[in-house]
Amino acid sequence: MAEDPVHAQRDRNASCPICASRAQWAFDSRFVAVHRCEDEACSHLFAVGVEADHGLMDAAASDGIASLYAERNERLIDFWERRRFVTGSSKLLDVGAGTGHLARSLRKRHPAIEIRCVEESESLRDRLQGEGFEVAANLDALSSDHAFDAVLLMEVIEHIADPVAFLSRLRRSLDREGRIFLTTPCGELRNGSRTTNAYDTPEHVQFFTEKSLRLAVAKAGFRGITYEYIDALYPRSTSLLSLAGCKRLLKNGARPLLEKLQGARHLTGFIAP
After folding, report:
1. Please, what is the angle between helix 101-109 and helix 65-82, to 10°?
2. 223: three-class secondary structure by DSSP
3. Cβ neighbour number for residue 182 with a 10 Å cutoff
4. Which one of 88, 110, 131, 264 has the lowest number of neighbouring Cβ atoms within 10 Å?
C-alpha cells in the first residue's frame, strides 16, 4: 500500500523556524504534517517536508474576493483612520496584495495616498500594474531608499517559510514611526484547542500561537505586537433575514466573548518597530 503523502512528511529531526530549537511531529492535518517546537517558551507549530513554493496560492483563489469584502474594507479603513494608521498622506505597502481589492478601496478613499504592492503571482502583478499600482515580486525587489509608515500584512505570514527573516527584511522597509497591521489564523488556542481555520488552507505552512508570533516579532527586532479584537475585520451580512446572514450575525456577536474565554482564533494587531 502506498504511504499517505502527509504521513510521509513527518520528520523527527525538524528545527523550529522561529527559535531553531528541536521540534517533534505533533499531528497530521488534512494537508501537511505539523510539528511542534519543544521549547516551551516558543511551542510553535509548523509544516515539515513541503516544497519550497508550497506557500504560494493559485491566483484563481483570489477571484471573487473584492465583492465579498467591499463593505468590510470600508469599515476597516475607518478603523485605521481612527488609529491614525492610515491618512491621506500615508506611504503604504500592501504585502500579498492579491487582486488589489484593499489597495483600490484605500486609493478610492484617499486619492493622494502612496501605495506600493508586493505580490508573487505574476498574473496578479500584471493585473495590479494594469490598474496603476507599483508592484514588486518580493520584498527584496523594493527600492532600498523608500520607507513606509504603514504596512499591511494580512493573511500572509502563515505562508512564509522563514517568518523571522521575512519580518526582519520588512522592518528595514519601515519608517521609524511606522507600524505593521498583521492578521493570521491561530494554530492553537490557549486551552490547546486547534478548532480554527488555520489548517483549512493547503498553502499554510506556519501555525502561530499568541506566544510564538510574539517571539517571532521580537526575534525580528521589533518592540512587539499588540493583539486586539478588531470587529471591522469581519464582513457583515447584507441580508439578515437569510439563514446565512443570521448565522454570521450570531457568530460575530459571540466572537469577542469566546476570545476572552479561549483566546483568539485569529491573531490580529499592530507591530511597532
Report:
1. 50
2. coil
3. 25
4. 88
- pLDDT band at residue 242 using 50, 70 and 90 as cut-offs: low
pTM: 0.87
Cα–Cα distances in angstroms (integers) from residue 201 to residues 32, 184, 205, 206, 261, in the given order:
10, 12, 9, 11, 26
Phi, then psi, of 263 in degrees rounded to 5: 100, 160
Question: Which of 16, 79, 76 has the alpha carbon at shortest distance from 211?
Answer: 16
List all residues 6 or more positions away from 67 whose beta carbon is below 8 Å from its beta carbon: none
- The three grid cell numbers given for residue 223, joined into one nine-digit string: 518592540
Cell of 273: 518597530
217 closest CA partner among 139, 148, 163? 163
Sole residue written with cell 474565554: 261
DSSP strands (E only) in the chain:
14-15, 22-28, 33-37, 45-48, 91-95, 114-118, 134-136, 148-154, 174-185, 206-207, 224-227, 266-272
Residue 56 contacts residue 159 (beta carbons within 8 Å) = yes
In angstroms, the CA 263 to CA 209 distance is: 10
Look up residue 184 and give its three cell numbers: 493570521
The domains of the chain, with CATH numbers, are 1-50 (no CATH), 68-272 (3.40.50.150)
